[in-house]
Design goal:
Blueprint: E1 5-9, H1 17-23, H2 27-42, E2 53-54, E3 64-66, E4 73-74, E5 77-80, E6 88-93, E7 96-98, E8 101-103, H3 107-120, E9 125-127
């Protein structure tokens, strides 16, 4: 059995928001992100790797964060499913964290809104696009 299938959120204008955020990262941070996402794709037990995926986050029972270190702490927000929560993860928003605060500060709210959009319309996501 393979690992998690990864998807990215797509907005109403058919823009892959996670891909756009990833393109704005420095090359070393993109490499760190890609390594962590590859680990999730390879996770044969379909577990959320401790220390890599944390959550659910407070007040958002379906939203998790990836923890990727470095000078800038990357904290992409994701959810299980929402179409097939046992086999897939959807990357909802690219975010950072500083002093325990998200950037953008309303990232969890945005992530939950996007999760709801996908539940109503599965076309609001696409297969994950790896940005090199």
């Amino acid at each position: 059995m393979g690992g998690w299938r990864l998807y990215d959120y797509v907005d109403r204008d058919e823009v892959n928001q996670f891909e756009a955020w990833s393109k704005g990262l420095e090359k070393k941070y993109r490499a760190m992100l890609n390594r962590k996402l590859k680990a999730l794709e390879d996770e044969s037990e379909h577990g959320l790797i401790p220390g890599l995926v944390v959550g659910p986050i407070k007040r958002y029972p379906h939203i998790y964060k990836l923890q990727i270190g470095g000078k800038v702490r990357l904290r992409p927000l994701l959810c299980k499913g929402p179409i097939d929560p046992n086999n897939e993860l959807t990357l909802l928003i690219g975010a950072t964290e500083r002093d325990w605060k998200f950037g953008p500060k309303n990232a969890p709210e945005i992530a939950e809104k996007r999760r709801q959009e996908i539940i109503l319309d599965s076309q609001r996501r696409c297969n994950h696009v790896k940005v090199l």
